[in-house]
Amino acid sequence: MSNKHYLTAASPIALAAFLLLPALANAQTAPAPAPSDGAEVETIVVTGSRLASRGFGAPTPVSVVDAEEFKQSGAVNVEQVLNNAPQFIGSQNNGPTANTVPGGTATLNLRGFGAQRNLVLVNGRRFAIAGADQTTDINTIPASLIRQTEVVTGGSSAVYGSDAITGVVNFVLRQDFEGVELNVQENWDSHTTTRTHNIDLTVGGNFADGKGNAVVSVNYLDRGAISRRMRGNWAYDSLSDGCVTAASFSKSKAGTPFSPPSGQTCVQAGGRQGLIAGGSGDIPNGRFTGVPLVGSSTSNPALDAALTAAGLGGMGSRGFTFNDAGTTARPALTPQDDFNLGPDNYLIIPQKRWMLNAMGHYDFNSKVTGYVEAHYSNNVVDMQLAPTNINGPFLFNVNNPYLSTQMQEVLRQMDLKEVGTTTVTTGTASRTTVAGDGLAVINVGRRLREVGLRRNNAERNVFRFAAGFRGELGDVSESFLRDLKYDAYYTYARTSETDHQDGNVSRSRFQANLLSVGGAAPVLNIFGSNISAAGVQAIAIGATNITEAKQQVAAANLSGEAFSLPAGPVDFSAGLEWRYNAAKYIPDEFLRSGDVVGFNPGLPTGGSTIVKEVYGEVRAPILADLPFIKNLTANGAFRYSDYNLKGVGGVWTYSVGGAWAVTSDLNFRGQFQHAIRAPNVGELYGGLAQSFDAATDPCSSRAPSAQQTAAVRAVCEATGVPAAQVFSAGVQSNTIIGNLSGGNPNVGIEKSDTYTVGVVLTPRGVPGLAVSVDYFNIDLTGAISQLGGGLNNTLNLCYYVVQSASSEFCQAIKRNPVTGEIAPPYYATITNANTGGLKTAGVDFAANYRFKTDFGWLPDDSGFDISTNWTWTDEFTSTPVQAFPNIKNYCVGAFGTACGQPIPEWKGGTRITWRTGPLSLSVKHRFIGSVTTDKYLLPKRSGGTVPDLATLTNPKLPAQNYFDLSFSYDLSNGVQIYGGAQNIFDRDPPIVGSAAPGANTYAATYDVLGTTMFLGGRLRF
Questions:
Q1: What's the pLDDT tens digit per position in 467-517?
Q2: pTM, whole model, 2 decimals?
Q3: Kind plus residue range of the DSSP H or E element containing 407
Q4: What is the rounded CA–CA span in Å between residue 511 and residue 538?
Q5: To which H or E segment does residue 965 belong?
Q6: How is 669-731 classified by DSSP, letter by letter?
């Protein structure tokens, strides 16, 4: 940058300090200063419009993250940098902390509306899609080739088409590279010292006397796995909500469980609501329920006597378990017997990536330039989970030889008290039992540790090719259609993924091997730790799943000056676009049949969408060079899209806006955009798939005590919870609940209206300073979502709002008739519909300041760069079902099972970089504001029953401040070393109990590795 953008005097300390205030903000770039009067106006295309910028503020806010920010952060995965930007919310099931299946991809969640509602471009064109959700895997973006990343934070469907509800992220790559560049980098964390190796080699040059240029870049990445056991400390245990002794209470560690006397709450009895070392109620020695309690109305004297003789006279709702040998039964306890899921689960999933990118262009003549882009990547990502559990009702021989005579008598009495015919379905098999047939039904919760850990190896291959022609057509006449330019291209992309799974178990085989065949002992002895190698072989299954996705785009665009008005030329852009998206998911036969436990079963998915579009955009200067009006422009855009979907058809999107440059120092801008998103292949044609999500069953003891009312009890009983089990621990033995979700070919489009109004300051009196402030308001209706807005919202609507067992929300919930649990093979089945709404509003603050100093290594070549970027979120509201418009989740400042990832009011940060000669030193502050559990905030904001904060575990997560350091040093011409550390004060993430989606915290939002370091070297010649 030229010296006119620096202060030659001593740096204004007061102004620099002002930029660091939380009223401004983090690592984004504010708009560049407008050119000075009389300067030649450079026209460049900036994301958010297909029209060339003419030097003053565009009506749509565009944030820019340059290549230097990626280097200073030490990130080798692109999404890590962008997710720190305040406009983004963590993607729970994507990224390096997402130990989920399906998974292994990285996505961007702009404004918290979901990855499917923002559009990812590379060089202004759509990139490859990863699967049926049609999102782009950011793992396929080459960090070493990024020149800058442009983020448009507002609906842009009129300019770019479907999916741009919350905006566009455009990765602009280096396309004119000459020379050879080798970059080698090593990353590691302080707690486990696990390494990540990254190597980039880029080669490029001109040919044909400068008419052409070609660039080839190769990347290799090897990221090591980090399990929760390796991380230790707060990550090791599966922490749950519970009552603990006051002396043992901790916000980050398990306390000593405390059982208050009957009739008293935890707090009343002197305890504290805190964290306990919980986990899964399905345990290695087996937990057995569905047996009546001694003296209960569902028992009888003979069964009471048998239970007492077997040592189960004091059994509670948790049922009973066995010692390791399986010889002695005893009542099961919680949390003492719960299985710790934490240690074996990955906190950071391992990744190996090979990636090749090639780009080239050639000027055939002054009117025609041909260009090509090619991409190939191979990503191998592993997920690892604790051994699978199996639960549900199973049949046992009453004379099972692995049981003591006392337990055999319990089973015999269970058999004799059966009424009518009972059908037990296990996977693809069904069996019946009647009284006295020698078979008894007992509910099993068994952790199959003998089968081994669950592992999923996902190998994803991505190929993309783009080719096109662009050039200048000149003028049709001196006054009409001038400076015409064209760009026509075709892209083809294909993603293929193969998942290999180990650790699954067949449910039907499990049942078959529990029973005697021809009088022989059953193959499976699940009482205690006694499953043999033969038993494992009899029930274990592998699985292979295939996912394929294809995208084709053909587009042509014409732009230029239509004609001139007194204030200047009217710019226009018009074009045609055709897109084809197709995806299919082919699950393993066991997953397809549902006869599996371990990884989630699902049905096949397959389908395609085609859209034909015409679009146009215009910008007209209204006034110019008047007092207080340097420039006043109006702009508009439209797009008509014709989909081959019966629920969509033809749809219009449009935008109108304007920009008012008062002077070179002050610019105002505003925009209204009506955007749409058409349903993706998964939302249309997705087969029913099983998942397990963090949730609270209102009929269990996990529900807040204030909400355990008589009205809720009545609905619980009406939906299948035995009266004796309502509000007991046995209704929800795990912190997660199984549910089935799937597509609906009749879903239609989502619609959104976006308003943005802002101001840009580039004061000539302070050269090098640029400040922007923009208000945004996005209102989405017809959101494609699961019935009720998801599992938690469906539960809330059924039990707390509608409170009718005949409602569609209650009808979606199936329960184990013995225990009342929502657990396999009983699920909540929630299919897609245009059911909900989302709304967010707030203000983005961004500023840059660059100035020279007269001190440093080389005083004549020293200066500071200060950039700050913040977002204040004033509103984030979800309407789960728009048929109930008064039922809203006001989620700003909240976290939890209904609101999801933390949505703080304030998020942002500041980077200060000092450059002096060959040395660059940088410090960055990252800030995430405090949030409160939605169990408290949602009822408080909606006027419902508000629980006392003292009855909730860690109800408030404090604000997080992270500090990062980095440096770079040019050893000689073309040789540079660089490095740094993130989270230098080793701050642990805030810990959550039962509401945590994994790893006891929100790993997609907070730093989970503590201090991480990186060191690299770059050689260019």
A1: 999 999 999 998 999 999 999 999 999 999 999 999 999 999 999 999 999
A2: 0.87
A3: helix 405-416
A4: 11
A5: strand 960-972
A6: EEEEEEEEE---HHHHHPPPEEEEEE---TTBTTS-GGG--HHHHHHHHHTT--GGGTTBGGG
